[in-house]
Design a protein that fits this description.
Radius of gyration: 20 Å
Shape: globular
CATH topology: TIM Barrel
Structural class: alpha/beta
Number of domains: 1
Largest sheet: 8 strands, parallel, barrel
Number of strands: 8
Order of helices and strands: EHEHHEHEHEHHEHEEHH
């Protein structure tokens, strides 16, 4: 059972209930208001990864390697991963890609870096993929994604995220590879599931993917609290006698 987290307080709240916390580059949208994950930097991931790793006492913490920090070569990926692990205290890193990333995954794992792979819809490649559409519905796509799954599994990834991929293909991947699969818009037959915490609690309202189930709706209460606070301050009702100190 997995959720994302980007802050210390959120981590403290979810840590007792999950097995894995992902510091995802989805913070591009949930924290920084970006349109995609492409603009996330290594420094951003390290800052948030450090806050989460310090606050987690139960769950395994995994940090995303952002776009441009690992694709050039296995050596570049190792430098980025080593820095992330050393500066955050996380247990593992996640990177996107399949067949083309197998050599890099093998290089990292051979040097003591646990790697979570990510296949199917890979948001860092959204410009090359032409959007956020469901993957694996055509025979060619399905064959390519299955090949990706086999490649990252064979390279030593300790788990594989399958994102927004046709359910029959996601099921087939879970049945075929040895590494545990973690679905997000994939299949209930995956070994685990992951969602973005801001989606789960109804805080991120700009977009609601089909695969998201909201377990709470906190956006309106937050807005209402800010509204009521502002109204009381303007009316000089806050702070009241209970909130100030006598001379």
């Amino acid at each position: 059972m997995c959720l994302t987290s980007y802050t210390a307080l959120t981590t403290q709240l979810i840590d007792p209930h999950v097995d894995l916390i992902l510091v995802g580059d989805s913070l591009a949208m949930t924290i920084y208001g970006m349109d995609s994950t492409v603009g996330v930097t290594l420094d951003m991931m390290i800052a948030h990864g450090r806050a989460v790793a310090r606050s987690a006492g139960h769950a395994c913490v995994v940090v995303d390697l952002p776009f441009g920090s690992y694709e050039e070569s296995p050596a570049q990926a190792f430098r980025s991963a080593a820095r992330v692990m050393a500066e955050t205290g996380c247990a593992a890193v996640k990177l996107e890609g399949g067949v083309e990333m197998a050599e890099t995954i093998r290089f990292l794992t051979a040097r003591g870096v646990p790697v979570m792979a990510h296949i199917g819809l890979t948001p860092q490649s959204v410009n090359a993929l032409g959007g956020y559409g469901v993957r694996g519905r055509t025979a060619d796509q399905a064959a390519a994604i299955m090949a990706d799954a086999m490649a990252v599994d064979g390279a030593g990834a300790f788990s594989v995220v399958i994102e927004k991929t046709a359910e029959p293909l996601s099921r087939a991947i879970s049945e075929r590879i040895g590494a545990p699969t973690i679905g997000i818009g994939a299949s209930v037959t995956c070994d685990g599931q992951i969602l973005v915490i801001d989606d789960v609690i109804g805080l991120f309202t700009a977009f609601r993917p089909k695969f998201v189930k909201r377990y709470a709706e906190i956006a309106n209460p937050i807005a209402a609290a800010a509204r009521d606070y502002a109204a009381e301050v303007r009316a000089r009702q806050f702070p009241g006698p209970a909130h100030v100190f006598g001379g």
